[in-house]
Amino acid sequence: MTKKNTNQEVGALGEEAAAEHLAERGYRILDRNWRCPEGEVDIVAEDDDYVVVVEVKTRTGHAAGHPFEAVTPAKVQRLRRLALAWAHGNPRSGQRLRVDVVAVTLEADASTRPVIEHLENVA
After folding, report:
1. What is the average pLDDT score of the chain?
2. pLDDT in tens, 19-33
3. What CA–CA distance (Å, rounded) separates 32 from 96?
4. What is the pTM of this model?
5. Which of 32, 45, 48, 96 could form a disulfide with 27 if both were Cys (CB 3.0 to 4.6 A apart)?
6. DSSP 65-111
7. What is the DSSP letter of 114?
């Protein structure tokens, strides 16, 4: 990856890697980049009897800290509200809500697979 990649490009690459990671683990992607007046959800997926709102944080290194560090308690609360808003507009009988965070670290060498870490049930 070159320095000329914008934050949006890095974010898009990370979200794609996270979606692939989730699909490989049996999650079914229901929605991507879902928006409402309160904000945006990167990925909404189904995992067994859970609807999972997934926040994706992508970095090209750890100079600015680990990607998980960007998920503050306030961000987790907002993700909870977004999960409820998504569920309200997309009712699914018998399913519970969960918030996960996926950290993606992209390597400078584009041929190297990104490092993906997945925290389940942060909220």
Report:
1. 91
2. 999 999 999 999 999
3. 19
4. 0.90
5. 45
6. --GGGG--HHHHHHHHHHHHHHHHHS--TTPEEEEEEEEEE--SSTT
7. P
